[in-house]
Every structure is written in C-alpha cells, then in structure tokens.
Task: structure prediction
Amino acid sequence: MSLNTPEGEQLLETAEFGPHAKGPSKPAQELRGDQLRGLRFWKEVGWRYIATALIIVYAMIPVMYIISASFDPIGSVSSVSLIPDTISPVNYEELFTNPSRPFPTWFMNTLIVAVVVVVVQIFASALAAYAFSRFRFKGRRGGLMTLLLIQMFPQFLASVAIFEMFTQIGEVAPAVGLDHLAGYMLVMMGGALGNVWLIKGFFDAIPMELDEAAKIDGAGHAQVYFKIILPLVRPIIAVTSLLALVGVIGEFLLASIFLRATSVKTLAVGLQGVLAADRSNNLGWFCAAAVLTSIPVVALFLYLQRYIVGGITAGAVKG
Result:
C-alpha cells in the first residue's frame, strides 16, 4: 500500500502519534530531568546554603567591626567603619607601652586564674562524675538532683554574701581576701561541680565490664579511674575544659567586686574600666585588646573542635 494514498497517510499518523508512538526525543527528556533536579535541589538543599551564607555574614559583621576599629589610629566611635581609611598598629603598640593600662599584667592574671580554676573544676567534676556513675550509695540521687538545682540559680545572687564573707576572711588571712587573686580563685572554685552531669553522661556510656576486668587483674579504684576510664573520656574532658575556660575569661561581675586594684585585675575588669573611662576615644585600644585576647581561645577551640560535637552529644544524650 502506497503512503501517498489516504489509507497510507492515516497509517503514518497512527504510527507517529498513536498510543504506541514514541515520546519526546532523548535530549528533551534529559533537559526536563535537569530542570527537575535543579528545582528539587533549591527546594530541599539549596536554600540552606543561602541561609548559612546570610548567617555567616550577619555573624562576621561585629567581628569585622572590632578588627577594623583595632587598626584605626583614631579609634573613636565616629571614625570607625568596616573598612578603615587608615590602617595602623598604634593601638596594638599602646597595649604594651602604656603603664596606666597594664594589658600584659591583666592578661597574665587572667591566664593564672583560668588555668588554676579550670584544672580544679574539671578534676573535681570528673571525680564526682565517676563516683555518681560507677557507685551506688545512699543519697546518690539526691546529690545529683541537688547539683542540678544549684545550677539553676546564677552565681551573682550570692555576690553580696560572698563579699561580706571574704571581707571578714581577709581580716584574718589577707592573702585570700579582697584584692587578691587567691581569694578570687577560691570563689570561682565554688562552682567546681558544675560539669558533673555532662561528664557523668559520658562515663555512663563506658561499659562496666572494663572496670570489672581491671579489678579481676588486681587494679584498685584509682588505677581504674586514671589508667582505664580517664583516657577514654578525653573528648568530654576537652569540651568541659574549653567551656570552663571561656566562662572564667569572660567572668566580670565577681571579678569586679573582688579585684579592685589595678595590679590584680583580670582582662574583663581592666578592659571594661578603660572603655568606661572614655568610651569614644578608647574604643580602638579596647578592640585591639579584645582581638589579642580572643586569639588563644579561638586557637584552642580550633585545636579541640574534633572533640566538641562528639563530646557534647554523647554527654547530653546518654545521661
């Protein structure tokens, strides 16, 4: 049958457009699939990248403002911008050359307080967490609930009572009274058991069979704790140490009450005093000090970042 006849043309149309006809060409199908994948990507994943970028920009604006102000030689509120017109290290030089603002002394005071307080806090919290996790004794549940209840009240509520107490203690033992780092460190050590719940959750995840196997071999509680358990909980120790360090460095209220002399001030108290004296003209100096203070904390944070997520989630979920 010839295709030029009416019957042949009808057969050709049925072959091309009938129920068994082939769909669009392969390139057209691939193009439609690419469009679908693109829309699905922006609907499910792409918007998250945009939101993350906006959050990063929003968070970086104050940081860029502080860095810019630290390199601004004028260092006043009216002259600071995100991109300074003139860049100069004069504010950083003044940190080490102005005796009325002894930044190195304040930095060393803060470092001493932070190291001593963090070591005592983490050591005491780890010992208490081990006892609460491994032993069963009368008052265990009440002790845990008491620690949780104490953490609900901020420390500054007791600032007046602590001030009166250490005023009287200073009359008997001046070395641990007001205007002495030792007295301030004793006050900060009062929160030594603040990380018990977080560390205990990590201890609970360690099988008891390790303790039992070590005791069968003749190990005591101290050997089990220091040689077996403690090496396994390094992530949570690193996390709690970092959190305690940041808290001690940024503590201002109690430090401003106990440390009034210039030679014993910490960075929080010293920098606040300089900025309060002349908020406009001392802004550049303050920002330079803030940048140098943040460098050790950021470096330590980056070094311990591999422990942070795993340590916090394990301690919070498995408690």
